[in-house]
Design brief:
By secondary structure, the protein is an alpha/beta fold. The chain has eleven helices and 20 strands. The chain is globular, with a radius of gyration of 23 Å. The structure holds S-adenosyl-L-homocysteine (SAH).
């Protein structure tokens, strides 16, 4: 006989058969349309989840606003949420301590993939950047546990909160600016430090916690930078270069590197990063589509081209348009590569599967009559694990290919 009540002291949310099936399939989200009852449950509360007949399915964090109403945190009853959070944070940190190499910048906590749905923590040398993406992770008692645990285990100079106003709006949380939330571990002098220098694969980068985009750098590409540098040679073009992640790595093995981006602030940081590493790189502020067309028309040729555009497919509905965009970029890059050239082509749209992206690259090669050998078919770095059965946690594709004619 299944137990009729949740065997914990938590409030109960009952979900539909479809929601139950989703959890049985291994996913950790239940959508609002699959909530049967959640009466009296406070926004952001930890809840016991049951099926329609009252059978206990696990413990979750509840959002009263998001379309994702439930994010599971355990298949067991949880009566000590702070204890569970502390254990999960400790496990996430010790995994990184074991596997992350050659850097002091990495994702410490990757939300669902670290069984801490709604929480992202990145480390940049002595600074930590925290993003609380749900009502539950934003709740004061939860934030206090997170900050205390991070301070105790990692002893950062500061912890900064990065706020995405759109996320807070969707979660119906009051607006709040990004800012410093903790300066110095308890036993240290208060530092108020919000900028630092971090390094990956021997390359150094400036980090400003309260400027820039996303979380300051694209940590998910860290291992791809090193891989790309292993093949890159000659004259190189880094398209969508942002603050120079690929370009600076390529400069180790290429005779000449040009980085292209439409964002002037990003290029200004890229230039400071080049100086920090004693490298000469040409930075060009331009729309990548226009520039690739102009350069191709002008007969420019390269030995190495990197394509790392922003996510074109933000939802399934614009997938076709996005695929056309990816294809155009790959076509133009392939036209400009010399024989034996190296193409590093990335796609961070979750809606474009690895197989589909390989098709896009393959179609592009056929259209311009180039033979491509895939030498590495890569994804996101080890500090961004993909939770099986939660496909949303895997999004990055990075194909390294060699043009053979
Ligand atoms: N390769 C970078 C990350 C790229 S993120 C790294 O590893 O750090 C995507 C970049 O594309 C952003 O810097 C954004 O400014 C730029 N971008 C977006 N649309 C663009 C366009 N049409 N032309 C050129 N750059 C563009």
């Amino acid at each position: 006989m299944p137990s009729k009540a949740a065997p914990s002291s938590l409030p109960v949310v009952k979900i539909s058969r479809r929601g139950t099936r989703r959890l049985q399939d291994g996913h950790v989200w239940v959508y609002r349309s699959d909530i049967v009852s959640a009466s009296g449950v406070a926004p952001g509360a930890a809840v016991g989840v049951t099926d329609e007949r009252g059978k206990f399915l696990g413990t979750a964090l509840y959002s009263s606003a998001s379309q994702i109403a439930i994010r599971m945190i355990s298949t067991h009853p949880v009566n000590d949420l702070p204890g569970l959070l502390r254990d999960r944070i400790a496990a996430a940190i010790s995994y990184r301590e074991r596997v992350v190499r050659d850097t002091d910048a990495y994702r410490v906590i990757f939300s669902e993939a670290d069984f801490l749905a709604g929480l992202i923590v990145d480390r940049y040398n002595d600074l930590l950047s925290v993003q609380a993406l749900t009502q539950a992770m934003d709740a004061e008692p939860v934030r206090n546990v997170i900050v205390a645990e991070l301070n105790e285990r990692l002893k950062p100079a500061s912890i900064v909160e990065r706020v995405d106003p759109r996320v807070r709006e969707l979660e119906q949380l009051p607006a709040r600016p990004s800012g410093l939330i903790s300066s110095g571990a308890a036993d240290e002098v208060q530092s108020r430090k919000t900028s630092t220098v971090f390094s990956m694969n021997g390359v150094r980068f400036h980090y400003e916690a309260l400027e820039g985009q996303k979380t300051g750098a694209f940590l998910d590409q860290r291992e791809n930078y090193a891989a790309a540098a292993g093949y890159a040679y000659g004259e190189a073009l880094d398209v969508f270069c942002y603050q120079g992640g690929f370009a600076l790595h390529l400069a180790q093995s290429c005779s000449q590197v040009t980085g292209v981006d439409s964002s002037r602030p990003a290029l200004e940081v890229a230039d400071r990063n080049a100086a920090l590493n004693g490298r000469e790189i040409e930075w060009v502020e331009a729309n990548a589509f226009d520039l690739l067309r102009d350069y191709a028309d002008a007969g420019r040729r390269y030995d190495t081209i990197i394509l790392d555009p922003p996510a074109f497919a933000k939802s399934k509905s614009n997938l076709e348009t996005a695929l056309r965009g990816y294809k155009e970029l790959n076509l133009r890059a392939l036209k400009m590569l010399r024989p034996s050239g190296i193409l590093v082509t990335c796609c961070c749209s979750y809606h474009v599967s690895p197989a589909l992206y390989l098709d896009v690259v393959g179609d592009s090669a056929r259209d311009v009559h180039r033979n491509l050998r895939i030498v590495e078919n890569r994804g996101q770095a080890k500090d961004h694990p993909i939770l099986l059965n939660v496909p949303e946690t895997g999004y990055l594709k990075c194909i390294i290919a060699c043009v053979s004619n």
